[in-house]
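User: Hey, quick favor. My workstation is busy. Could you predict this chain's structure for me?
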Amino acid sequence: MKFLTIGMFVAILAITFGITAWAVRRTRTATDFYAAGKGLTAAQNGLALAGDWCSAAAFLGFTGLTALYGMDGALYAVGPLVAFCTVLLLIAEPLRNTGTYTIGDVIMYRMRQPPALAAAIVGTVVINLAYLIPQMAGGGVLIKLLFGLRYDVSVMLVGVGMIIYVAAGGMLATSWVQIVKAVLMLGAGAVLLFMSLKGVGFDLSALFASAEAKAGPNFLLPGNLLKNPFDEVSLGLGYMLGLAGLPHVMTRFYTVPDATTARRSVIWVMFLAGAFFACTTIFGLAAVHYLGPEALRQGNPGGNLTLPLLAEYFGGGKGTVGGELMLGFVSAVAVATILAVVAGLTLATSGAVANDLYVNLIKNGQVEERQQVLVARMTAVGVGIVATLLGILAEGVNVAVLVILAICIAASANFPVLVLSLFWKRFNTGGVVGGMGLGLISSVGLALIGPAYLGANAIWPLVNPTVVALPLGILGAVVGSLIAGRNHEQEKRFDEVTFRVQTGLRSDAV
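Assistant: No problem, here it is.
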């Protein structure tokens, strides 16, 4: 039976490696490597964005959180419906019009000073690594389930696949792998949704009632996971503003030819990802109804195997041909999901190191394109190794919680600096350093001493510290700008930035 599961996995993996081989022949310039030649359509980029955002946290973690904690877990799933509104209204068009490959390009275009670019690089790398860790952990859990390998070996296999995608094919390979993965993921979700509702006569109220009866009378009430009301506020703030500060999502707007296409991409992903996230709540409740909470906890304490176990059940149960086929298909799609997302994260991190640090900061832009691509590929290998080592250390933690913490860091550090760079004339290099520094220190520090990492021994009461770290990040940006004093050159450049944000003219020249 296991050969059916493995065969399904190998088939999907072969498709993604075939895409990479195709992309290698079409990746020659830095624009090809970082931005897929800026040739994706709105639908293609929307699907790729859905692939970027529908990560291991969505496919595995959100379903698991709902199954274990009821409606508190469901809050994690429905948050993105609001989050992309911020991206659509505030970020998509200005970012496409003012940058070339990375968020660091936007900061450097406005400030033109090395300390500002250095702060942007640090923020990008920290956020991407924080986001990479849960993806690697989720991939390790699934490979372990499929092949019976040790967890650390499983994570290493995910790392190897990620490095091949990025180092060989760049953004073109990563984009098309994400597009294929998004189609497979939405297809798998539709099948599971149909089967989940069919068993209860397509009566959602019956599904809710059954889940509540099996999990306890408090299952559908608030407070199972987010026991502090400020955690709910933090979660909402983190989603609403953090998504607009995630580097691997923002770099997607450089893969399209113009700002109009960038906006349309966001509309595509709002419908695609929003529909899928809404379904993960139903999957979590269905898992409780069909399998029971104890079986889910035995499968994985963090709930990360809830969806694969549900798929196995719908196929006829463990040890049956249908069960193995369903488990193999869903697990293979989930692994493809993880590989595509970690490839996007690795590419964004590689861009921060190779393009921002090496090309713009160290070499001051004086680098041949071929050498720039070579450095980017070498950086991708290094980032992949670091992410693999960190993923091994994250065994047993729910991947959704870790992802939300990464989004908290993005909301507290990247978002204030990015928005103020685009919309505040008085903002300067001191503000970039102050906002990025205080936002990073407060969000990471409070997360590390909070319940997400220390459990019952937590010093800080909130799982998600955005409600405190975000105001501190904004405060650091404002105070840093005031302390640094007025920079008339940077203020004059603000008019140029505003013109470029509104018109998109000369948007490919930094």
